[in-house]
Amino acid sequence: MTSDVGVRHRDAALESADTSAHSRWRPYPEYKDSGVEWLGEIPAHWELSALRRKLFRQAGSIKIGPFGSQLKLEFMTQDGFKVYGQEHVIARDFDRGSKYIDQAKFAELAACEIRPGDLVVTMMGSSGHCAVVPVGIERGIMDSHLLRIRLPDAEIDPRFLCLLIDESNYVRDQIGAYGKGAIMHGLNSGIIKSIVLAVPPTSEQLRILSFLHRETARIDALVAKKERLIGLLREKRTALITQAATKGLPAAAAAQAGLDPNVRMKHSGVEWLGEIPAHWDLAPVYARYEVALGKMLDAKRVTGEHPGPYLRNVDVQWGHIDVEDLPQMDFAPSERDRYSLRPGDLLVCEGGEVGRTAIWRGELEACFYQKAIHRVRPLSAREQPRYFYYIMYSAARRGVFIAGGNPNTIDHLTAIQLRHYRFPFPPEKEQTRIANFLDDETSKIDALIGEISIGIGHLMEFRTALTSAAVTGKIDVREEAA
Predict the structure, then answer these.
(1) Is 453:405 a contact under the CB 8 Å cutoff?
(2) 313 and 397 part of one domain
(3) What is the distance between the alpha carbons of residues 341 and 292, in angstroms, rounded to a whole number?
(4) Domain range for residue 480?
(5) Taking the CB of the first residue and of the last residue of the chain, which one, N or C, has fewer CB atoms within 10 A?
(6) How many CB atoms are closer than 10 A to CB 266?
(7) What b/e readout covers 435-453, taking b as 16+ CB neighbours within 10 angstroms?
(8) Helices 428-471/158-167 angle, 10° precision
(9) In 345-421, which ranges are continuous DSSP H helix?
(10) Given a cut of 90, is residue 97 above it in pLDDT?
(11) pLDDT, greater one: 256 or 118
(12) Whether residue 335 sits in one domain with residue 402
């Protein structure tokens, strides 16, 4: 990839310019005490009011959706009227989902319809999130997890109210204080109506919205640029691994490692591999490694007499094994050697992201593994597990373990299949040097990705802080938006 360092410094400068820009916005010339503990001072000309007094002058302007017993959902592939829930609000995606009701049920529940411009607020679990219903949605109603706020001829723009609910700490404090529910944090229409707001005149709301649209678009563009750079770095990382693990070290690195930089190549006979160095072996996995599937879960046979922690599919990630809060099951003395792990064992996922691999490094004194995982153990000390890890990574990224090349297929990598895959195996010394090279180079790329990700996090924090400051009157952006 061309000039990673140059791109990095350019984006760092842009980020610094954006995050320091907050200092150029001044507060309003005059403030007054709101008299509300969690609100503090507000601009002197802003109005303080409970939501119910300022907004709800028409019947039906606030409404909670019907419960499931009222809906009696019919799942259709087409036609009908869509049912919207909190997942649409949290994801800001009103196109997802396939819950529909028929014409008769829609007529019965028409009062719960949502329309473009309505504000919908989540009521259970992740309560207090909101979204403005976009133009062009399928006609439909909301379910009981949503509350609708309709603002015809109101003195507040729904987009401004949405930002207040989503981004201002003082509104969240009120929701947190008033929210009810012993198991899940929940709201109701009375709580929403009781929220106290500090609101500028309508014309000023529009100026604030215009300012935020421009400034957040700039931040979002920079975030997108950084995300694209992360994507390029990941592509470079994968290409580097594939090149070294299947073709050998780059010429300069090979010479530095004392290897021949101009090796003769031969065709492997394996389509995804193509040519490999002529002095490498091409062998089935079973010739170099033992492949063993883990223990099947059986709740009926759990006695608690010989408990032991075990790894599941989800605990095995690329290059990392999560050993926090592992479940336990019985491993009788006769089973412990069969299902135990040793440092240097590779763990390969049978399902899910098929072929996902990590190396056990002795994170726990004693640990076992379940049937969703293959334990791949070297048959001799000549094999380098770290090299085999990189071969598995390259194969998985090339789609070798996906049936028919279709990523939507639910695949399983059986022990028989894994044993018979043919992979290249360099001499022992070369395996070690390839693994060392890839460890060093990928750690550099990973560190750079980590730095960029931190920068994205700072930008998103700044975006949130800027939005909150603008809609709560901490900064005066009227001239900026003019």
Answers:
(1) no
(2) yes
(3) 11
(4) 1-31+202-257+429-482
(5) C
(6) 13
(7) bbbbeebbeebeebbeebe
(8) 120
(9) 385-397, 415-420
(10) no
(11) 118
(12) yes
Strand pairing of 196-199 and 47-50? antiparallel
Selected residue with higher pLDDT from 333 and 70? 333
- Tell whether 222 and 248 lie within a shared domain: yes
Same domain, yes or no: 476 and 440: yes
In this structure, the answer to whether residues 420 and 290 fall within a common structural domain is: yes
Chain Cα centroid distance, residue 375: 28
Model's pTM, two decimal places? 0.81
- CATH code at 153? 3.90.220.20
For residue 198, pLDDT over 70 is answered with yes
Query: Is residue 80 a contact partner of residue 99, using CB atoms and an 8 Å limit?
Result: no
One domain, residues 189 and 247: no
According to the model, what pLDDT value does residue 267 have? 95
The answer to whether 143 and 209 have CB atoms below 8 angstroms apart is no
The answer to whether residue 42 sits within a structural domain is no
Q: Tell me: do 192 and 217 sit in the same domain.
A: no
In this prediction, residue 52 carries a pLDDT of 73
* C-beta of residue 44 within 8 angstroms of C-beta of residue 28: yes
In a domain, 37, yes or no: no
Neighbours of 278 (CB within 10 A): 10
Domain annotation covers residue 274? no
Structure tokens at 21: 């820009």
In a domain, 379, yes or no: yes
- The full length of the chain comes to 482
For 145-287, strand residue ranges (E) read: 146-149, 196-199, 265-267, 275-277, 281-284
Torsion of the alpha carbons at 382, 384, 387 and 392, rounded to the nearest 10: 90
Instruction: Give the burial string for 349-364 (b: 16+ CB within 10 Å, else e).
Output: bbeeebbbbbbbeeee
DSSP string for residues in 149-173: E--TT-SS-HHHHHHHHHH-HHHHH
What tokens does 45 get? 């000309």
d(CA 227, CA 221): 10
CA distance 347 to 360: 7
Residue 132 to residue 57: CA distance in whole angstroms: 20
Which amino acid makes up residue 223?
Answer: V
Dist CA 343 CA 345 (whole Å): 6
Average pLDDT over residues 239-256: 90
Total of domains in the chain: 3
pLDDT tens readout for residues 286-328: 999 999 999 988 766 666 788 999 999 999 999 999 999 999 9
CB 114 within 8 A of CB 120: yes
Instruction: Look at residues 154, 146, 113 and name the one whose alpha carbon lies nearest to residue 129.
Output: 146
Q: Which residues make beta-bridge pairs with 282?
A: 424
Instruction: State whether 411 and 287 are in the same domain.
Output: yes
8 A C-beta contact, residue 466 and residue 258: no
